[in-house]
Specification:
Blueprint lengths: L1 H18 L57 E6 L13 E7 L4 E6 L5 E7 L2 E6 L12 E6 L4 E4 L5 E5 L5 E7 L7 E2 H6 L7 H8 L3 H8 L8
Antiparallel strand pairs: 1-2, 2-9, 3-8, 3-10, 4-7, 4-9, 5-6, 5-8
Helix pairs in contact: 3-4
Length: 229
């Protein structure tokens, strides 16, 4: 009888869970360390909501994406974001936008958005783009590279969390716009995170991970890893 009751309860719970649509919200930041201190500041997902009576059209407005970004930097690109930090009306809407400018042979280096899928459209120039898969069940598909050369009007999508890049293969400037499925998608530029972390990752860890001499790691850690965002 006890076993039959347990099976019945388990079945009901399984059915209930299959019909439930509620779930924990996706995090919009890397971490939030709990602290038992009433005087501490609170920084969590999203923002404090403005009084609806005080909302104006300006809360849903941003101007400036017609202006080219400054690509005079080592990677030759500039990302101009329009996320919840620039456009308060995006709060809780789960979307954001960027403009990306590329100098000739400039690139948006390999990076990942931990909280968003990205869909990119080329407006000007020619871009070589791609992303790398993660570790699927089929070992033959592990770290598979998908690439495409894009021209004005072409669209490409980068799945959430996967490493991707864009490279201007032309001799003229290129411009692209991208939508992202988060109000605050985050960005981790691989080289910056690995070789430019603060404090630095152990040389022993990186030399073993990349199977290179420690001096190579030290050289890379000594470079200036700039942020194009």
């Amino acid at each position: 009888m006890a076993i039959r009751l347990l099976l019945t309860i388990t079945t009901i719970l399984a059915l209930a869970s299959s019909l439930a649509y509620a779930s924990d919200p996706s995090p919009l930041q890397d971490f939030c360390v709990a602290v038992n201190d009433s005087r501490a500041s609170v920084f969590v997902n999203g923002k404090i909501c403005k009084d609806p009576k005080m909302v104006t059209a300006d809360d849903f407005f941003f101007s400036g994406l017609n202006k080219p970004g400054n690509t005079s930097n080592p990677v030759g690109s500039k990302v101009t974001p329009v996320n919840v930090n620039q456009l308060p009306g995006l709060n809780t809407l789960g979307i954001s936008l960027v403009r990306i400018d590329y100098a000739p042979y400039g690139q948006n280096p390999p990076h990942t958005h931990p909280r968003a899928t990205e869909i990119l459209v080329v407006v000007e120039g020619t871009l070589y783009v791609g992303f790398v898969t993660s570790n699927p069940a089929n070992p033959n598909e592990k770290n598979k590279l998908f690439t495409k050369t894009l021209y004005p009007g072409d669209v490409f999508v980068f799945p959430e969390g996967l490493i991707h890049f864009q490279f201007n293969t032309g001799k003229t400037n290129a411009v692209a716009f991208a939508g992202l499925s988060s109000q605050n998608p985050g960005v981790i530029t691989i080289a910056n995170a690995v070789f430019g972390s603060n404090p630095p990752i152990s040389v022993d860890v990186l030399s073993r991970a990349f199977q290179v001499d420690a001096n190579v790691v030290k050289y890379l850690q000594g470079q200036f890893w700039m942020n194009n965002n």
